[in-house]
Amino acid sequence: MSNAKTILIVDDSESDRLLCRRHLKDDPQIKYLILEASTAQAGLELWQSQNPDVVIVDLNLPGDSGLDLLEAIRENLEADSDRAMSDLKLPIIILTGSEDVRDAVVSMRLGGASH
């Protein structure tokens, strides 16, 4: 899968991760390498070691929240002087059942797109 895109899904719900996997695997044009984590800490470790092309994160995680993960990713990117400025635009998709507009605003400031 040399042309595969690496997707990191960070969600504590196994059924939500399964739903994401199914949708991604149905794409006939792009193959995906899918990484999964159920906590923000595990997600950060996978992000650091695997350098995914896209991160899909649930805001409501046990322990540290999805916003905490976004902040940690942003801090890592800003601290790494070897990374190109374009890496600061890592595509991050936020999944949330929250209707709190503040969550959406904070996540977008940290680089996410709220859906």
From TrEMBL:
Mind telling me which SUPFAM superfamilies this protein's record contains?
A: CheY-like
Q: What protein name is recorded for this chain?
A: Response regulator
- Listed CDD domains: REC
Q: What residue ranges carry the coiled-coil annotation?
A: none
Q: Does the keyword Repressor apply?
A: no
Instruction: List residues modified as 4-aspartylphosphate.
Output: 58
Q: Which UniProt keywords apply?
A: DNA-binding, Phosphoprotein, Transcription, Transcription regulation, Two-component regulatory system
One Pfam family named in its UniProt record: Response_reg
The residue ranges of the Response regulatory domain are: 6-115
Gene Ontology MF: a single term: phosphorelay response regulator activity
Which GO terms are recorded in the biological process aspect for this UniProt protein?
A: regulation of DNA-templated transcription
**Key word Aminoacyl-tRNA synthetase present:** no
SMART domains, A to Z = REC (SM00448)
A cellular component term from Gene Ontology for this protein is: cytosol
User: What InterPro entries does the annotation carry?
Assistant: CheY-like_superfamily (IPR011006), Sig_transdc_resp-reg_receiver (IPR001789), WalR-like (IPR039420)
Instruction: Output the Gene3D superfamilies linked to this UniProt entry.
Output: 3.40.50.2300
